[in-house]
Specification:
Elements lengths: L24 E9 L9 E8 L17 E21 L2 E19 L1
Antiparallel strand pairs: 1-2, 1-3, 3-4
Length: about 110
């Protein structure tokens, strides 16, 4: 029997249900800058605005004098060779560990 997709568990694929597949993740983050530090290292994530980028709009409150920007980031998610034991019903299965790495970033000054 052939299953349409991989599952997060080694040696088994499931027909029904939502399963982690290691697909890419995109997030939009509001960042604030420490005005006392003169470096790109002064930027810190303040709020994640959207992790499922859509066509919706958002209104940001006025910042006053505080420097802010938007950071759009894409992370590649991939299965590693590592596994962890996880009990699924009455069976213990080996779940594959998913890691992620940054593959794209764009900055939008406000």
């Amino acid at each position: 029997m052939t299953f349409p997709g991989d599952s997060e568990y080694q040696g088994v694929s499931f027909i029904r249900g939502l399963h982690e597949t290691g697909g890419n993740r995109v997030e939009l983050v509001l960042q604030k800058r420490d005005p006392n530090v003169n470096s790109d290292l002064a930027w810190r994530d303040a709020t994640t605005l959207d992790s499922q980028i859509s066509t919706e709009t958002a209104t940001l409150r006025a910042a006053g004098r505080e420097p802010r920007r938007l950071m759009l980031r894409e992370f590649e998610r991939y299965y590693t060779d590592r596994t962890v034991s996880e009990k699924v019903g009455a069976v213990t299965r080996q779940r594959r560990v998913i890691e992620e790495r940054l593959v794209y970033a764009a900055v939008f000054d406000l």
